[in-house]
Amino acid sequence: LLASCASENVTVVYGVEGGTISVNCTYNPWQQRWREKSWCRQVEESKCQRVVSARRFWLPFLRNRNGTTFIRDDIHQGILTVTMEQLQKQDAGLYQCITDFLGETNSLRKVQVEVLTAILETQMPEEPRAVQSISRIPSGANFTLFYILAGFLGAKLVVAVLIFLIGNSRKSKKNPSLTEQQVLPFPRDGINSFWESSA
């Protein structure tokens, strides 16, 4: 994993304990082809201790491998590749790809190596673990969804009741009830005597 810190021009490389990381440092093959190139570890602000150097046929004493770290130089493409294997916590730190020519040292790239603790696999099989995580997540979500739906349905019910009541009250104002329209005075003698007296 790579992350760039633009403010300090440092590339952060993440590796896992026991794992491997590779870092590519590019350079101009025409200008720096024959220069000595190294991978060094920053031990002080102004001191970078060489770990490995790209071997040249006229410099056979240079070590292009040091323990689990080795370096390869592609002079045609202008790419210096550093590989760190079997990473340990103590490998974390600030490193640099550098070139050296007649005592003049230039940095090609600054790299902060971070070593993460390996995640141990649990004894539980993968499938049941996924089932547990699935069943655990919706339980809270089900309650939330239930409350949302209940609130929504309750609001709809209240609105429906209000609309019904308002509609009935307006209807009764416009059309008086049938009992008010059909109340007729009936005399005690019956219907016939009522019609006779009115005639």
UniProtKB/TrEMBL annotation:
<keyword id="KW-0812">Transmembrane</keyword>
<dbReference type="InterPro" id="IPR007110">
    <property type="entry name" value="Ig-like_dom"/>
</dbReference>
<keyword id="KW-0732">Signal</keyword>
<dbReference type="InterPro" id="IPR013783">
    <property type="entry name" value="Ig-like_fold"/>
</dbReference>
<dbReference type="InterPro" id="IPR052314">
    <property type="entry name" value="Immune_rcpt_domain"/>
</dbReference>
<dbReference type="GO" id="GO:0009986">
    <property type="term" value="C:cell surface"/>
</dbReference>
<feature type="domain" description="Ig-like">
    <location>
        <begin position="17"/>
        <end position="114"/>
    </location>
</feature>
<dbReference type="InterPro" id="IPR036179">
    <property type="entry name" value="Ig-like_dom_sf"/>
</dbReference>
<feature type="transmembrane region" description="Helical">
    <location>
        <begin position="145"/>
        <end position="166"/>
    </location>
</feature>
<dbReference type="Pfam" id="PF07686">
    <property type="entry name" value="V-set"/>
</dbReference>
<keyword id="KW-1133">Transmembrane helix</keyword>
<keyword id="KW-0472">Membrane</keyword>
<dbReference type="InterPro" id="IPR013106">
    <property type="entry name" value="Ig_V-set"/>
</dbReference>
<dbReference type="InterPro" id="IPR003599">
    <property type="entry name" value="Ig_sub"/>
</dbReference>
<keyword id="KW-0393">Immunoglobulin domain</keyword>
<protein>
    <submittedName>
        <fullName>TREM2 protein</fullName>
    </submittedName>
</protein>
<dbReference type="GO" id="GO:0038023">
    <property type="term" value="F:signaling receptor activity"/>
</dbReference>
<keyword id="KW-1015">Disulfide bond</keyword>
